[in-house]
Design brief:
The structure holds two protein chains of two kinds. Chain A is α+β, with helices and mostly antiparallel strands. Chain A has helices at residues 23-49, 58-70, 86-97, 102-128, 133-147, 153-156, 163-166, 169-178, 183-199, 202-222, 227-249, 253-272, 291-309, 315-330, 344-360, 364-377, 380-388, 390-394, 407-420, 439-444, 461-472, 487-494, 496-505; strands at residues 8-9, 12-13, 50-51, 399-400, 403-405, 432-434, 476-480, 506-511, 515-520, 532-534, 539-541, 550-561, 575-581, 589-591, 598-606, 613-619, 626-638. Chain A is built from 23 helices and 17 strands. Chain B has helices at 15-25, 62-79, 102-112, 121-124, 145-158, 203-209, 290-300, 353-371; strands at residues 5-11, 31-35, 51-52, 83-84, 88-94, 116-118, 132-138, 141-143, 162-165, 169-174, 180-184, 189-197, 217-228, 236-241, 246-251, 256-261, 266-271, 308-320, 331-334, 342-347. Classes of the chains: A alpha+beta, B alpha+beta. The A-B interface holds A 411, 483, 547-549, 582, 584, 586, 607-610, 641, 644-645, 647-651 and B 62-63, 66-67, 69-70, 74, 107-108, 111-113, 325, 355, 358-359.
Chain lengths: 652, 372
């Protein structure tokens, strides 16, 4: 087979070398791709069939949103969606078609990520190879097979945060730039796709638009190809953003914009980028992102610098330059927290750029070189996923919301029903307030007001959430067991007033594998002791614990300083932490930056017969950061016997 | 002529019954304690490992570990003269089949402030390296049930609590006066304003004969082997965690060592339900499982093969069904269970008595407050 390489890309001649591609190679690629697809989709089907998902993040973050859409609510107006208001809409058709239950949501979640991963890659490959079907097959087969060895599993599976979907739209945007369409179409379509990229993935879309802004200026200054198109697409994206958002939110764009541009960035560092999450505490801590991430970033930076410094008339080089700019900007997330998967969007763009060069331009030596790990290792990841889920393929049992429940979920549900009563059909009469709404609410069909997850009540909404809880006085409350995940400790640290209210009025009725179910007591629990002041300082001690564990509400008045406080983004780099010693708490408290005076309230679980010692310190990449504790007041509260499980921090 | 009218009657002369009777005597004028056996503390309070828990047994149940940790110093303070604290108690974490690993064990107890230290090299060498992940020195004692019996008998006598040995309760019925009447197995009857059923494995027996709702309980015929350990183990207690493993430690009541195994100590089990009366198999008809216990234990601690068997104690161990799915402690406190002023109380471990007394104190304080 001879490869007819594109004579022109973006209207400009590019070098091409006709090569032959043998049928065995093509068939091998097609078969391997088919095997990859079968493994990935079968694995997703098994996962949806027998539900064993996490009660926090992941599955229910999506189920809750889809149920709200199904009830006629609007994302961004009636409820926030952390990753972008368009994400639930992408899943909605599948959810409705499959029956609008937990299984429908799960199967859609499991399948949409690989569909969009392969779909966007196919479109990109089709355009990059100028519509050559055979080359497209080889391109996509290699792309799929190399995904797992390169650490891109988080992109073709939903993972915990739908990262693959969030970073899909930029691939379509770059495909648009590579087409042979006219400049006006590219500008219009590219702009709309860039705006959609923000709608369908707040952080990734924002980085694409930022890359276009930077790229547009840079390309104009250096008079490189596609300069007008990129600049035009940027302007179109800015203009298209609000109308598209208005369409989705019902012309009520303000809450969505506020959530995405004010509340979320404000809490990105001190709240999300705080222990137990790893964050860049110093330059050496960056190594925790992993070898693969460091390698991908290093190669990307090298290629980016080469393209930056060496002008080229080739438009595909400009596209790769923009791709890497977008991917590298997305890696700024590492300044927030050191997640092993954050490099994946950059990894995908680097992979696409490499394949474009190797496949479409037919560099056989390189093609063979990059094929080796793909062919050797490409099926291991998906096959391993399926092997882990093999029992789910044949599991039988009663269905709940379309799924067979894993044993721990059955126990969870039974214990909740024993405490709260039957759930089915309760609707909004369900007397349960969950800090992470999930299966009980889905079974009851409850669409309750406010954020579905306490962690998504950002900025001023945090206080509103607590006020709503105080006024609602629900009969039962569900919080996550501190032994199940240390993120519960993190949540307590950041939203202590909620837990303080909880301890004042509730006792634990039952303990499920995932959560504590609290029941409102007829009378308020034991009073807090009167507030008293203690001597503040960088290190300060609380009075010693008694014979029983108890909680001490601590309010600190503090001031933070940072040498980079006037530099956007970098001003948030320092973390101001309060570390514990001699307490049952194990996760340090993160204080919001407060250049003037700030106040923050948190809880300390006193260990019996021990003096708790608290130490304030700053960590982070910014030099000259410090925190000073000006005043400390404390209010101890006894824990009732029925509240003792609350103290199980640090046992995870 | 014996008195027949009391402020409170406690049924069951085990450690719980005696301690509750002493508590009640502080608040009421006349307290009667009934014990079916010929002496106090001869059943479940005697036939167990005699371990005073300090939490180590419960790395997966925070509250249980915490309660043990909180109660331990109190128990040591109150009954120090009935304790053997002369040995070193070691907890080993099995490398396979354990539900907890060594790191988790260490982390959970360090965070709680419960003392846990790495074992001495000489002690570690006693264990099979491949089968045991790590060994820790802990702080845990053994109680002497005979010493406790002496102590509690003396205190009850001093408190002028009437104790009737060899006398059990057959039935409890309400009287029109609001009192409760107890039919005794010697044909007599007594009346009381309040009755406390502390009969452990016999709780449902009394409830059934009185036509009252049964409690969900499971019983096991448990064997505690009494042994003479090999010289290497003298002065040590060993518990291998956290699954189907074993334990051996001093048993002060008989000046020997106890030996028990999660898999072989229970011989048979049964449940109380409405259709089938609870029936414990006769211990005399049961063959010892000690050879199996020892064979398995010697895999983990080879020198144990030289252990000398001296006999076994058998009795019924009772657990609440709610505790079957986790390792939570079987603490039961039921107020007005089927009848006004009928209390049902059970505790699975000796130091849980403080949790029960805490509840009783709360009830008493509330009642006193209401009167005032």
């Amino acid at each position: 087979m001879s490869i007819a390489s594109p004579a022109r890309k973006g209207g400009i001649e590019v070098a091409s070398r006709p090569q032959t591609m043998s049928h065995p190679l093509l068939w091998s690629a097609a078969c391997l791709l088919a095997a990859w697809i079968v493994l990935v989709f079968l694995s997703g089907w098994a996962e949806a069939r027998v539900f064993s998902g996490s009660p926090v993040d992941g599955p229910f973050q999506l189920v809750n949103a889809l149920r709200r859409l199904h009830a006629g609510q609007r994302a961004g107006t009636d409820f926030p969606f952390f990753h972008g208001v368009g994400v639930p809409w992408l899943h909605y058709p599948g959810f409705v078609l499959l029956g609008a239950n937990l299984w429908a949501s799960e199967l859609t979640r499991q399948w949409l990520s690989p569909v969009l991963y392969l779909g966007s890659m196919s479109v990109f490959a089709w355009v990059a190879t100028s519509g050559d079907r055979r080359k497209t097959i080889v391109f996509v087969a290699l792309g799929a097979l190399l995904s797992c060895p390169l650490g891109l599993r988080e992109l073709y599976t939903p993972g915990n945060s739908l990262l693959g979907i969030r970073s899909t739209m930029p691939v379509f945007f770059f495909a648009v730039l590579l087409t042979r369409w006219g400049a006006a179409i590219k500008i219009a379509l590219g702009g709309v796709v860039a705006a959609l990229a923000w709608i369908c993935g707040t952080d990734q879309g924002l980085m694409l638009i930022a890359a276009c802004a930077f790229g547009g200026v840079f390309l104009l200054v250096t008079r490189r190809p596609l300069r007008g198109i990129v600049a035009g697409a940027f302007l179109t994206a800015c203009l298209a953003l609000v109308p598209i958002l208005a369409l989705i939110t019902g012309a009520n764009v303000k809450p969505a914009l506020r959530y995405a541009f004010i509340d979320l960035p404000q809490d990105q560092f001190w709240f999300f980028g705080a222990p137990p999450n790893s964050f860049p505490s110093d330059i050496w801590s960056l190594r925790f992102v992993g070898v693969r991430a460091i390698t991908v970033i290093a190669i990307s930076v090298a290629v980016w610098l080469a393209l930056f410094l060496r002008p080229s008339k080739r438009p595909d080089f400009t596209v790769v330059f923009l791709m890497l700019t977008t991917g590298l900007l997305a890696c700024l997330s590492y300044l927030g927290l050191l997640s092993a998967s954050y490099f994946a969007p950059l990894g995908r763009l680097l992979l696409l750029g490499t394949l474009m060069w190797a496949v479409s331009e037919s560099h056989p030596g390189w093609l063979i070189l990059i094929s080796i790990p793909g062919v050797a290792l490409g099926l291991i990841g998906p096959a391993s996923d399926l092997w882990k889920r093999r029992e789910k393929l044949f599991e039988t049992g009663p269905m709940v919301s379309g799924c067979i429940l894993a044993p721990e979920w059955k126990e969870h549900l039974k214990k909740i029903e024993d405490a709260v009563g039957p759930l089915s059909g309760r609707g909004n009469e369900l007397p349960l307030w969950s800090t992470y709404r999930g299966l009980p609410e889905a079974i009851a069909g409850a669409i309750l007001p406010g954020e579905d997850y306490l962690i998504h009540a950002l900025g001023p909404e945090r206080q509103s959430y607590i006020e709503r809880f105080r006024n609602t006085k629900p009969q039962f409350v569900q919080t996550i067991r501190p032994e199940y995940t240390n993120y519960e400790e993190w949540l307590r640290n950041s939203t202590w007033p909620f837990y303080r209210e909880l301890l004042a009025h509730y006792e634990i009725a039952t303990v499920t594998p995932f959560s504590l179910i609290w029941k409102r007591t007829p009378e308020p629990g034991g009073d807090e002791s009167p507030a008293s002041s203690i001597v503040p300082g960088k290190t300060f001690s609380l009075p010693p614990g008694g014979e029983q564990p108890d909680v001490v509400t601590v309010e600190v008045e503090y001031q933070t300083t940072s040498s980079l406080r006037l530099v956007p983004l970098f001003k948030s780099l320092p973390r101001y932490l309060i570390q514990f010693r001699g307490t049952l708490n194990t996760v340090p408290v993160s204080l919001p930056p407060a250049p003037n005076r700030g106040r923050f309230v948190f809880g300390v679980l006193r260990r019996p017969r021990t003096i708790p010692v608290l130490r304030a310190e700053s960590e982070g990449l910014a030099p000259g950061a410090a925190v000073e504790i000006r005043a400390v007041t404390i209010q101890p509260r006894q824990l009732a016997l029925g509240q003792m499980q609350f103290a199980a921090a640090g046992a995870h | 002529m014996k008195r027949t009218d009391y402020d409170a009657v406690v049924i069951g002369g085990g450690f719980y019954g005696c301690t509750i009777a002493l508590f009640l005597r502080e608040h009421f004028g006349s307290v009667l304690l009934l014990e079916r056996e010929k002496d106090l503390l001869t059943r479940a309070s005697l036939v167990n490992q005699a371990r005073v828990h300090n939490g180590y047994h419960y790395p997966r149940s925070f509250v249980t570990a915490l309660r043990s940790f909180v109660n331990f110093p109190q128990f040591v303070k109150d009954y120090g003269d009935c304790l053997d604290s002369s040995f070193e108690q070691y907890y080993a974490i099995a490398a396979a089949q354990s539900k907890t690993n060594a790191l988790q064990f260490l982390r959970v107890f360090s965070n709680l402030g419960i003392p846990v230290r790495p074992a001495r090299a000489a002690v570690k060498r006693l264990f099979s390296r491949g089968l045991v992940e790590d060994v820790f020195l802990t702080t845990e004692y053994a109680f002497d049930a005979v010493g406790l019996r002496r102590r509690l008998s003396f205190e009850m006598e001093r408190a002028r609590i009437e104790v009737r040995l060899g006398c059990g309760a057959e039935k409890v019925v309400p009287r029109p006066s609001g009192q409760l009447e107890l039919d005794l197995d010697n044909g007599a009857a007594v009346c009381a304003r309040r009755v406390y059923n502390c009969t452990y494995s016999g709780i449902n027996r009394l409830l059934r004969s009185s036509g009252l709702p049964l409690l969900p309980m499971k019983h096991e015929l448990a064997e505690i082997a009494l042994v003479q350990p090999p010289p290497e183990i003298e002065g040590l207690g060993i518990t291998v965690m956290d699954g189907p493993f074993f334990s051996t430690m001093p048993f002060p009541a008989r000046s020997m060592y106890s030996f028990s195994h999660v898999r072989y100590t229970p011989h048979t089990s049964w449940r109380d339900d409405d259709s089938q009366p609870a029936a414990a198999p006769a211990p005399d008809a049961v063959r010892t499982n000690f050879p199996f216990m020892l064979r398995d234990a010697a895999r983990y601690v080879p020198c144990l093969k030289d252990t000398l068997y001296a006999g076994s104690l058998f009795d019924t161990k009772t657990v609440l069904l709610k505790n079957e799915s986790n390792d939570g402690r079987p603490i039961l406190f039921r107020e007005h269970h089927g009848l006004e002023n009928l209390y049902v109380i059970m505790g699975g471990k000796i130091d849980n008595i403080y949790d029960i007394l805490h509840i009783l104190e709360g009830r008493q304080a509330r009642a006193t407050g209401a009167v005032q």
